[in-house]
Write a structure and sequence with these properties.
The protein is built from eleven helices and 15 strands. By secondary structure, it is an alpha+beta fold. The protein folds into two domains: 185 residues, Phosphorylase Kinase, domain 1 (2-Layer Sandwich), CATH 3.30.200; 171 residues, Transferase(Phosphotransferase) domain 1 (Transferase(Phosphotransferase), domain 1, Orthogonal Bundle), CATH 1.10.510.10. It comes from Polarella glacialis.
């Protein structure tokens, strides 16, 4: 079998004029094709044929947002995946940007695991359009918001391990220069092992993108003062959001709740956090200090994720942080080195720095050139 890898251009075509490398042809045993392509997909390359890879399931709860719908999908092997189906108004560049952010964010057990992106051409009577989808791990326990509301709040001992998970995830993102920009309970999933897993990188950006940092993105009630004012300079807004999430877990409310959006913004910028409610009666002083430090209006006084993890609150907790792998950019050669001549997967024997992180910007399209089973991948 032969696999072709074609770099994509900025406008989405497969033309690479002016570039020295036009593409690569890889030869491998037929039994290695599917696992090899799956690895490329998880590293940001695009597939076609979503429903040939996943059976869409409409049972149970699905998430329906302004720009996407999340449903459960089942692989031929019976494994569950979460499929984020983009709605028609979502632009191509937005989907590819989210895929780039997800790819760069991999490597932490507290960040959603990304399994790839799909772009299918849908031909209608008068026009054709692209249907985009992103594929993730499926977490059947749902999100943190429902987890908390169904229990009418969490105790400090129940909330702190989840806060610790979130802070480890944010520390990981910070080390990659990624600003999530939408930390809130709805974007935290509860895993089978009851850890919090951060998802939804739709408005994430790099802290090196100074123009993007000026955008006033975020969710009211969780966005920090500088985010609301378009004055972000780094990941500080994520740390602020983690403090609000901890407050929510203990109270089922947010500290800046108000009747109108303008009042929410005003209270956020004032930093008026009240901990005198009855729900905080049994909250320790260390936990109170943690929330206040994370929600400090002045970013110079606000705790980073690393500083928060050193809080006495977490001293008694066992270390729950897990690192999956580093994310250095590998070469095509290193990916293919994971397969022996007979097609057996040996990728776990490759150093972690060679197993993750291909940028979708550098690998734009794949095509499996088998006469018996041709699959196309494009960007």
């Amino acid at each position: 079998a032969v696999i072709a890898i074609v770099p994509g251009s900025e406008n989405g075509s497969e033309e690479c004029d002016g570039k020295e490398v036009k593409g690569w042809l890889l030869s491998c045993a037929p039994r290695a094709v599917k696992p090899l392509l799956a690895k490329f997909a998880a590293l940001g390359c695009l597939f076609e044929g979503l429903q040939s890879h996943y059976k869409l399931m409409i049972d149970g709860k699905s998430g329906n947002g302004a720009f996407s719908t999340v449903v459960r999908g089942e692989t031929p092997q019976g494994e569950n995946r979460a499929l984020k189906l983009m709605k028609g108004k979502v632009q191509r560049h937005a989907v590819l940007r989210e895929a780039d952010m997800l790819n760069a964010a991999q490597g932490s057990g507290y960040i959603i695991r990304f399994h790839g992106a799909f772009s299918d051409l849908i031909v209608g009577e008068s026009s054709a359009r692209r249907r985009w989808a992103l594929v993730f791990d499926f977490h059947h326990r749902g999100d943190l918001y429902d987890h908390v509301v169904s229990r009418r709040s969490l105790t400090e001992s129940q909330a702190l391990p989840l806060a610790q998970n979130l802070l480890h995830g944010l520390a990981h993102l910070g080390s990659r220069g990624i600003f999530h920009r939408d930390v809130k309970p709805e974007n935290l999933l509860i895993s089978a092992s009851k850890n919090a897993v951060l998802t939804d990188f739709g408005i994430s950006t790099l802290i090196s993108d100074t123009e993007s940092l000026k955008d006033t993105f975020g969710s009211l009630g969780y966005a920090s003062p500088e985010m609301l004012q378009g004055q972000s300079t780094g990941c500080h807004g994520d740390w602020f959001g983690s403090g609000v999430v901890l407050y929510f877990m203990l109270s089922t409310s947010t500290p800046f709740l108000a009747p109108t959006p303008d009042l929410i913004k005003q209270r956020t910028c004032q930093g008026s956090v009240r901990l005198s409610y009855g729900c905080f009666e049994h909250t320790s002083q260390d936990c109170r200090d943690l929330m206040l430090k994370l929600m400090a209006v002045d970013i110079g006084e606000r705790w980073t994720a690393q500083q928060a993890l050193a809080s006495p609150c977490f001293k008694a907790l066992s270390t729950r942080y897990s690192t999956l792998s580093d994310s250095a950019l590998p070469s095509v050669r290193s990916i293919c080195a994971g397969f022996t001549a007979d097609g057996e997967d040996r990728s776990e024997q490759i150093p972690s720095t060679c197993r993750s992180g291909i940028s979708p910007a550098s690998v734009g399209a794949l095509a499996f050139l088998s006469p018996a089973n041709q699959q196309h991948f494009g960007r």
